[in-house]
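Record minuted for everyone:
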Amino acid sequence: MNAEFNPDSALQFNPVMTERRIKAAQQREAVIALLKKGVWVYIILLLTEGAIRKWGIPKLAAPLLIVRDPVAIWMLFVALKNGVFPTNNYVWAMSFTAIFAFFTALSIGHGSMAVAFYGTRILLIHFPMMFLIGKLFDREDVLRFGKMMLWISMPMLVLIAVQFYSPQSSFINRGVGGDLAGGGFAGALGFFRPPGTFSFTSGNTQFWSVVGLFVVYFWLNPSSVNRILLIASSICLIASVPLSISRTLIFQVVITVFFAFISVSRNPKYIGRMVLAIVGIAGAIMLLNKLEFFQKSTEALVSRYSDASDVEGGLEGTLGNRFLGQLLGAVQSTDQPFFGYGIGMGTNVGAKLLTGDVEFLIAEEEWGRLIGEMGTVMGLLVIFIRVSFCIKAGWLSFRRLAQRDMLPWIILSMAFVFIAQSQWAQPTTLGFSTLVGGLLISALKVEVPVGDAEHS
């Protein structure tokens, strides 16, 4: 018990421990590098899944709907095995709720194993995947992704312009599974909303919403991106709005710009950059307005906006239906079981498996679907988890503005709406929500010194 300390034995022991620590650190770095590649594969599949299902391998359109799931499952397994799995109260609470909802769906709900699996994967796979992306990516990865989106915006604009002016019977407008009826969705004045490389037009809207985030951010931080690329992608973003015939895209761009104004008000030295951006955008609109393709698409967008506003009761009705999710009506519903009808039943895939038709068996809005599938208690719990995460991320992002770090705040302008109440039953929307949430977590992960924030 009182043996003397032997320095020779300590010297013999320490190198071994040091070598083990070095090997463990190297192994961890290798795992993280491998998982980072998995994130980029997830992103590529998100951007190309629709193209593969329409033009690449249309015969496998149905299974390719969840083509990102195996990648996410593999990444979560590797992360869990190597101690990189994201562990926090949000993940554990959502996982517990999803598993419980799975068993109630089988025991007292719809009873379909396939439908229950499809619904549970949303909360059990993709929600933790959001935090894993946030853990793996750093600030440089986020900015690298943003620059990639600026580059992709140019060929994407060409594609949706061709789709916009081509008949639905053309190959470029081929629907999922090679559907000859076309992949566009009714727009206005005889034009259809183009889907781009995605299965549905919502994917195109979400793509340009993400482009908008980084166009706005890089205008406020122009030293970190090629100026010609920024101008070109800005013109593409402006042109995409009428071509998409999407009011949602308009709302999202307006929200992002509004967030930018708030960030500038917290850092007045950026006012000059904001004015420069506004002048540049105004000039781009004037230039585009001289082109016939932009004039026609703008007319279609204005017509679509007017018609839809008349039906929904103007801007107030549109915002109420789209961004509040009709939560009050869902909670007040008295004809649903305590544990709901079963997780997965409110998705289009679930409806197809249960009835043979693609329809909304529960509710089209996300919060109504969650409460209808899982009941009031579990549905509200999932909503609370999603909203509380957004509120916390919003507070942290706002605090970063004091450090002149605008990146998380700008990303929040899209992440808040998408994570809180977007339709996760739709795989592309789920993918963009997972990705944008992960980017937000990554941007918040490390405190950025003032000098680095200004020149990042």
Notes: Strands lie at 185-188, 191-193. The mean pLDDT is 85.
